[in-house]
Design goal:
It is a single chain. With 194 residues, the protein is mainly alpha-helical. The chain has one domain. Helices cover 80% and strands 0% of the residues. The chain has nine helices and no strands. Helix 2 runs parallel beside helix 9. The protein starts with a helix and ends with a helix.
Length: 194
Amino acid sequence: MEAKISSLTTWHPQLDNPNFLGWLVVACYLLAAACCGWVAVEAGKPASDGSGVWCVMAAVLLFLGINKQLNLQTLMIVLGRRAAFAGGWYEHRRFVQAVFSIAFALIGLVLLVTFAAYARRFIAGNRLAFAGVVVLLLFVLLRAATINHAGQRNGIDLKDKEWTWVLELCGSILIAFSAVAAAKSTALRDHGKS
């Protein structure tokens, strides 16, 4: 039993997806983050131009790119298992995982609805970026359900399926295209003023 507990409660940093597809996803995340940073700089200081939204998207995309290889969600799982063992509720972990998956999904949907409500002007001008955000949120929610075995209990196995990486690629590429278009539009508008 001690060996099982030890193997379930260890984590060490390593590259999680050191193959072509894994690095392609990382490259797309980093490219999209750079594009968002570029348009944030081009948009300038006024919040009405959406520079704050682009900055937040750049930060989130950078985190997702780093996390793609470091697999930090596994560290969270290990810490959760340690807490379960220490608290004596490891045998009830599936219930806790289900609650976590539901809460995580609800928080994600609330954030999306809040973003849609407060950034209507930004979304109207950057529909591709919003579509990319929705696709990436879908990926994150599916991945969270997979990690917690919620999908397997419902007959859906999404773990390590290549098509889930398509969601990551599509989401980041949509955001990158939208950011480039927005930066060009801002540059053209500024050029027209001078």
